[in-house]
Design goal:
about 350 residues, alpha/beta, Rossmann fold, six-stranded mixed sheet, four-stranded parallel sheet, 11 helices, about 35% helix, about 20% strand, globular, binds zinc ion, Threonine synthase, TrpB-like_PALP
């Protein structure tokens, strides 16, 4: 069941937002223990089928691997990089796309529209192609040529829009040929990204902090939801959620005048799920940190020296980690999760 976070109205099936304009959240009920609910016969995302709002007969043809974790001790702090960029289309977005595709199949939807700065578009194009679903993708004209070429290779119908990310969003919303499935609103997308928390729990147990690049909040909210499930089922501890934003695009903390150019994937000044994110920050005793291009560029270099080739938006979380480390924010021995969200190979 989908429930509106503004007026409480409920819906069944595939829906992007409430009639009142509020955002929707999927509400599911399950009983048992986390371990008991695992589908241990699978070593991929299907391990978590009992936690996902989808029917097995409509599973996408492509599946998702469990992404590895790389641990490093940095000045006494245990840092765990989760290599989300090793997903099939090179970013964590595949998690949200996976559940969304299953719902589209269940509803018999064959033509869809999405706006994206790149990663969500590539993810949808890859999955849609394998299902024969026609995808209209709205992207900013300044999107990198590499990403554009990839989208065409994946047979998406690309609509380039001159203007800001918000203008791209408006154009896609008013387009009438495909069902609009923006991941900014789509409640099923978050059902997919929450599987990150389950994997982390199976791999390294409880963590103290999660530093997450946060624009529209799809990963931030998914992780938080997954951790809340683990708390309910296992008594696991919810980490302090640190939302990392690009300077000039802060939606959860004070907005800077200077504008980050590098954090393009999270350059979303007015995210529809802002209230929900603020609630998660408060409930988890978290914080919002913003980083600028100089710190991001430095973080990219350091990550490369560790063998981690990620795109600039992903490096924001490590840049924030370095900042907080210098501030003395973390105690020695603390466990810090840093999901590395997108591949550096796509920004070439
Ligand atoms: Zn409503």
């Amino acid at each position: 069941m989908l429930k509106c976070l503004r007026c409480g109205r409920t819906y069944e099936g595939f829906k992007i937002m409430c009639e009142c304009g509020g955002v929707l959240e999927y509400i599911g009920e399950r009983e048992g223990s986390f371990k008991g609910l695992l589908r241990e016969e699978f070593l991929d995302v299907r391990r978590y089928l009992s936690f996902l709002p989808l029917k097995e007969e409509f599973l996408p043809k492509l599946t998702l691997p469990i992404t590895p974790i790389l641990g490093r001790k940095i000045e006494g702090v245990n840092v765990f990089f989760k290599l989300e960029y090793l997903m099939p289309s090179g970013s964590f977005k595949d998690r949200g796309t996976y559940v969304t595709l299953a719902k589209l199949k269940e509803e018999g939807i064959r033509e869809v529209t999405l706006d994206s700065s790149g990663n969500a578009a590539l993810s949808l194009a890859l999955f849609a192609k394998s299902e024969g679903i026609h995808a209209h993708i709205f992207i900013p004209k300044h999107t990198s040529e590499g990403k554009k070429r990839l989208l065409k290779l994946l047979e998406a119908e690309v609509h380039e829009v001159e203007g800001s990310r918000m203008e791209v969003h408006e154009r896609a919303r008013s387009f009438r040929e495909g069902i609009y499935i923006s991941h900014w609103y789509n409640p099923y997308f978050i059902e997919g990204t929450k599987t990150t928390a389950y994997e982390v729990y199976e791999q390294i147990g409880n963590v103290d902090y999660a530093l997450v690049p946060t624009g529209s909040g799809t990963l931030f909210l998914g992780l938080y939801k997954g951790f809340k499930d683990l708390e309910a089922l296992e008594g696991a501890r919810i980490p302090r959620m640190i939302a990392v934003q690009g300077r000039g695009y802060e939606s959860l903390c004070k907005r800077s005048k200077e504008k980050s150019r590098l954090a393009e994937g999270i350059a979303i000044p007015e995210p529809p799920r802002r209230e929900q994110m603020l609630k998660a920050l408060k409930e988890s005793n978290g914080a919002c940190v913003s980083v600028g291009d100089e710190e991001i560029a430095e973080a990219i270099k350091e990550l490369i020296s560790m063998g981690l080739l990620v795109e600039p938006t992903s490096a924001t979380a490590y840049a924030a980690f370095k900042f907080l480390l210098e501030e003395g924010y973390f105690e020695k021995g603390t466990k810090v999760l840093i999901p590395l969200t997108g591949s550096g190979l796509k920004s070439v």
